[in-house]
What does this fold into?
Amino acid sequence: MKKLTSLLVVIFMAAVVVQSANAQSPVSIGLKGGMNISNFSGSDFEYDAKTGLLVGATLEFSVPALPFGIESGVYYTQKGAKVEDSGVSGKVKLDYIEVPLTAKFQLGPPGPITPHFLIGPYIGFNMNAEAEFDDGEIFGGVDIDDQTKSSEFGGVAAVGLDFNVGVTKLNAQARYSYGFTSVFEDDADDGEKNAVLSIALGITF
It folds into this structure.
């Protein structure tokens, strides 16, 4: 139910993004999706990476005659980590609605293929938090919403390529985001912060 709620929130906010875009110029709207490879950083405990989903709507403001713009958007992003200890393996599964605000720099003249670089902050809202465990005999899961913080603040950087195809533009990006705030509440906190490498493909109109 919570995952369904997360997806509905993404759809609603994406509609808001599109509506805003129609009222402003110059602006491009788009869709982006890909894979996350997430882990926790900053803890003395050793975690392993897990994979997840990244999908959302984007909004890009360009500055005429300059190789510079602003890219934002609304993403549904799955984070967390794997853990193994004393013969028990498990996962911490975290679902966020994330809103980045990044400066976008074109790294070459306009053409069929243009590299770019992005950097900026993001804010994330925790929509769901679960822990799964498996000791080889028993598999289970528990809700850990009360042990995780409801929001996080961090930074994101990305490199990518824009492929100009008529009135549309395809793009590919490698993104790295790092949380500046802890994942867990104080009584469960061991310094864990989200660290995520994302590979994403998108289209803008």
Remarks:
- The radius of gyration is 18 Å.
- The chain has a mean pLDDT of 88.
- Strands lie at 27-41, 50-62, 68-85, 88-106, 113-134, 139-143, 151-165, 168-179, 193-204.
- The first helix runs from residue 2 to 22.
